[in-house]
Fold each of these.
Amino acid sequence: MASVDKKSFKREAQTAEDAGSRGQQQKRQRAERQKAEPTGELKLDARKLWEVLRRGDLDSEVRKVKMKEMMDMLRGHIKEVTFKHDMSRVVQTCLKYGNDEQRSEIAAELKGTYVDLSRSQYGRYILMRILKYCPKYRDEVIKSFYGHVRKLVRHKEAAHVLEECFAVYANAKQKWNLVAEFYGREFAVFKNIDGPKSLDAVLATTPQKRETAMDSLKSTVTPLLEKGTVQYSIVHRALLDYIRFADPSERQQIIELMRELVVEILHTRDGAHAAMLCLLYGSVKDRKAMLKAFKPYLQRICCEEYGYAVLVEALDCIDDTVFVNKAVLQDVCGMMSELLADQYGRRIPLFVLGGRNPHYVGSDALQVLADNDKVKALTSKKDASVRRKELTAFVSESMTEWAAANAAKAIFDPLPSQAVNETLLRAHGDKSAAWQRVLDLVRMDVAQLGADHVLISPIANRVVTNCIIAEHTVPKSADSTLPTLPESNPKFGSDVLDALVDSEQLVPAACAGAFPVRALLESPVTAERAKLLLRPHKSSISAAMADAPKKRIFEAILSML
């Protein structure tokens, strides 16, 4: 038995030794084959030097010496070696660590091969580095793509470089010259430097080109939609122009192709605009398909710089509010705390309550919504105020629960305080718990808290002031579709005045120059009682004004006593 184990051990050792020797033999053979190539010795030497040069902890002075050695070695041979994966990394490292002169030398030597590099699995990374580190050659790279855009956008490797050029580095003129090739051969061949820089401008001067441009656009974007490759911003621009200018029947065909893919184009301004138009022009079936596609990525869409505007458009134009609630608002309510803490996410619930308020919805999205109203008038039948009221009912419970739990802190934060404000004013149902949290803050000692008191804080006092005014005056709004404030709202001004009287903080608040005190004096509901309580203390308020840096609020309070 022992002899069998020894034989087995010897066989295993011999097999391992043979495998090791075979590996070494294959390595030697590979090195010999590389040496036999015209630039074989150069590649081997360059890779050895690269192992040193690529180290992140290399001393800067040593790096300069090694870069000079590398450039002396590669000079005149960069085109020959750059399409190989190992040498591609060497050239990328040179572009990363070289000085401006060395980088420009590499870019200049590769001039004339930029299109081929973009198509190369490894060469495209070099072109990306040139775009990043060689600003003097960006124009050359972008111009080299002129006449090739329609082919490059379909190419697996080149499309990434084209996207980098279009989305990051191209100016308005260059973007037009790139995307214009989608509109026809004429635009690919003739680049008019001083001519129009958008399809709108072209069709405004030469409307007869519309049919040709649409045919060319369709032949370009349809294969991309069928393949599902619509993630590039240059494609989003083309889709947007096609949806805007195509005939209704042609537009409907594209929307049917797009409805499952719309979720992939929401991360750019043009893509989001195109998606908004798809919702407007799409049939009921198209709209439902789009919202179902959004559902798995809803939180991400809500919190995207441009994606949130697409959900705003859906809330603004879809008549079936029950479906909108199931597809969008139920999930929005489930992640209310996360959304209200996000710069863009908060805009969804605030749009439901506050409408097209420029404080809540970005100016770009507002402009698109306004431009789309003409289309909305043709495609949506439900009265806007009815739609708004129904949507508000769906989110009210979640908003009031959030406000009751978070108002004490949120009212002092610039963005969440807006949600507290809109919830107290416009949400349906019982808001007493949330309002009681605010009143608890009102009762606190003004002298002790100073600028941190809810009536003095420049952020929090605005919420209290708005509530006091809302008791007697409808808040001003740029959105005419907002319904009147609920009749079940608390008696804001009366409650604030009662809280101040009970806690003996009315006079300290007036002496601190609190804006809500002015609002109480101006309100027809509370003015008479507030004046009666404050008149005996005019001298105290005047004394406080003498020491205050800003006197206008004190003057306003005193003028009403």
Amino acid sequence: MLALRPRAITIPRARTSSRIAIAARFRYYSVVANAPIPNKTKVWDSADEAVKDVKSGDIILSGGFGLSGIPETLINAMTKRPDVKGLTAISNNAGAGDHGLVKLIKSGQLDKVMISYLGGNKYLESAYLNGDVGIELVPQGTLVARLHAHASGEPALYTPTGANTEVEHGGIPIRFKPGGMKAGVLIPGNKKEGREFNGRRFILEPAIAGDVAFVHAWKADEVGNLVFRYTANNYNGVMARNAKLTIVEAEEIVPVGSLSPNAIHVPGVYVDRIVKATEPKSIEVTKLAPSKASQTQEASPAEADNKAHKDWRHRIARRAAREIGDGFYVNLGVGIPTLIPEHLDPNVKVWLESENGILGMGPYPTPEQVDADIINAGKETTTLLPGASTFDSAESFNMIRGGHMDVTCLGAMEVSQAGDIANFMIPGKLVKGIGGAMDLVSNPDKTKVIVTMQHVSKDGAPKVVKTCSLPLTGARAVSLIVTDLAVFKVDRAAGTLLLTDIAEGVTLDELRSKTAADFEVASHVATF
């Protein structure tokens, strides 16, 4: 019950010639007195029963990143309802192999997915290119921001991510006609409104509203308070807050009062139904350290040099490592950037950020340390350093878009002399997905963007070009290009390149023949 208790408020003393007057007044406010703990439970007996109200045409929000934190138990329950069709699923990706949302695509229940990344999901890529399913590609940070906007009661948001790219122009088809790209576009991309703020271009992105959220939690109490574990937090928290109906599968369901209020990630007000998670957790890519000793053993300069002489990838990584200072906060993309830590100066210690929710990422684990809830942005197993923190995808991309990273390194298919970068798709042939790349290059004035790549493609075509022919990931975003042949400093404002380094054994004439952009030569050109 509620009781009213008086609160005395002292009025400042008023001095008169004869006496000091002190006044007081009372304000009544409510406090809880002898309130019972609510005994209504949100726990359901089975996943099959919990999803019974999902209907055809619903928009389903599905948590997870790669296979980490995916609601596999709830997805399996939906496959038992083949009568429910025409669904739209929103997630970071659509699973891998036979795990995740790909099950609902194969069962014919999903008509469209709104995702950030396809990765190696060849089944979904083929279905999209053949016109069998619709895919709306959304930058990873924008996706979580749009979900968060609706959960917060906001209709839209402005973001720099995707400005001056096909995301703004609506140039990425959502669905092709039956027969695929040759048959034409059935549903075009959505154009976005653009606006300038303080000299920077932003685009207006609408909030995303879900009908049903499928969420995976580590622990849930009977009234719906949730706790996530390490990188399994990802999209789960924001999706739990968004939908009309939130269904949670939890590894552990505990009595009310078992969870510390200080540990709860999602309060129970957002949660409607809870079931026991029964499917085992899966790992997409298991990467291991050779030994425990190797995790802390620093590569010797001689060993690093030997790798650089034998392997062009390490040569690029060694040169890029020189751009990173002690104490930097750094995001490394997949591929060549992951080799950079091996070539850092022994006196340089950095904090590595992984956009799925890690700051302070460590080396690959030993077999004993493998944990399905600790993965990196490449969906690989990893570890956490002392002082590391884990958080959800909304927090991760706030720090990325906000320019709190010192450096980000990533690969590319093309880079222009103005610093434009293209690295996520080849229209009609390859659809990797946008992932977090557009967000990572969205604030180049605060976060230095370094591209590491081969100078030419497999067919010999130059990748450093005057103007990109592929869809852009970001416009005027790159500050430094490091290839196996050369290093160019980019003047993003002027749209010019300056050659600062050339690889050993490479002549200037050879470099010019393999570069489809204009560049100036520094007064002193170093070799690497």
